[in-house]
From TrEMBL:
Assigned keywords, A-Z: Lyase
Residue ranges of the TM segments: none
Protein name (database record): Amidohydrolase
Domain Amidohydrolase-related, first and last residues per copy: 4-280
GO MF annotation: an example: hydrolase activity
Length: 287
């Protein structure tokens, strides 16, 4: 059984608008030489990666993208349907309730494996559906749909270095409300709150049955520094690289470094194979 990288952002030219190309060139100046799909698949083969989870979410403030980017991504990556899983998203604070329902259903029918919420890029708390936090009904619609359809929600936690990011929204403690209010919803805290909220993310994964951590963007050599009790939550963690983010050497190299972490074989197998496959399916999978 091969591995799964549960957190990548592969921006191929074929799915980008002209505005997105301009912004990516300005913000992530090393991105343009990392988007050859054949090179990506070759590296995946060399790393024994069965598939990767490509997270494609709209961000009008950051990337100039809207919900259509998810559909374009699915249409492109369907040519490699056994190698890619797609996670979509809706920018709920820019949509009406009816628009939110439309895009969630359209992405679901197209084949997404889950939805991403990026609070620092979207400028909202992930618990903003609660009355004391603003009562954003559109966010409640997203969580209810995901819970009813057994779709995981990935929430960015921790800081973001990108321009326009508002890092006050990156505290994972806001996900605690979601866990309580949507007890059958699987909530994955991306990046485990790194670097300043790791303890919070770890504790939430320990005490909340439906909260999980993805370990992406944490340098493999530092994982046990951030999470010395990783073995205790081996059933709640998913491997991810965050490729091609700054500091990630490559899909293959990041995985090989992670496989050298001094944890039990049982924990390693769960984190890099079993747990990700329980949540995410490639596009070739039929519901």
């Amino acid at each position: 059984m091969g591995y799964v990288d549960s957190h990548v952002h592969i921006w191929v030219e074929e799915i980008l608008s002209e505005e997105m190309k301009r912004r990516i060139s300005d913000i992530a100046k090393n991105a343009e030489n990392r988007t050859n799909i054949n090179d990506v698949i070759k590296e995946m083969d060399e790393a024994n990666l069965d598939y990767v989870v490509n997270i494609v979410y709209p961000s009008r403030e950051m990337w100039g993208s809207n919900e259509e980017i998810v559909i374009r991504a699915i249409n492109f990556f369907r040519k490699y349907s056994d190698r890619f899983s797609i996670v979509g998203g809706v920018q709920v604070n820019h949509l009406s309730e009816s628009e939110t329902k439309y895009w969630i259903e359209k992405q679901y029918e197209a084949g997404v494996s889950g939805f991403k919420v990026h609070p620092p890029h979207m400028w909202l708390k992930p618990n903003a559906y609660r009355q004391e936090e603003g009562g954003l009904k559109q966010l409640e619609i997203l969580y209810e749909f995901s819970q009813d359809h057994k779709m995981p929600i990935i929430i960015h936690t921790g800081t973001s270095y990108f321009p326009f990011a508002r890092n006050k929204y990156g505290d994972p403690v806001f996900a605690d409300d979601i866990s309580v209010d949507f007890p059958k919803l699987s909530i994955i805290l991306a990046h485990a709150g790194r670097p300043i909220w790791v303890n919070t993310a770890f504790q939430l994964a320990r005490i909340r049955r439906n909260i999980y951590l993805d370990l992406s963007s944490i340098p493999p050599r530092k994982v046990l520094e951030y999470l010395p009790r990783l073995e205790e939550i081996k059933d709640k963690c998913l491997y991810g690289s965050d490729y091609p983010d700054i500091g990630v050497k490559g899909i293959k190299e990041n995985l090989l470094e992670f496989l050298q972490i001094q944890i039990s074989k049982e924990a390693m197998d769960k984190i890099v194979q079993i747990n990700p496959k329980n949540f995410f399916k490639p596009l070739s999978y039929t519901r």
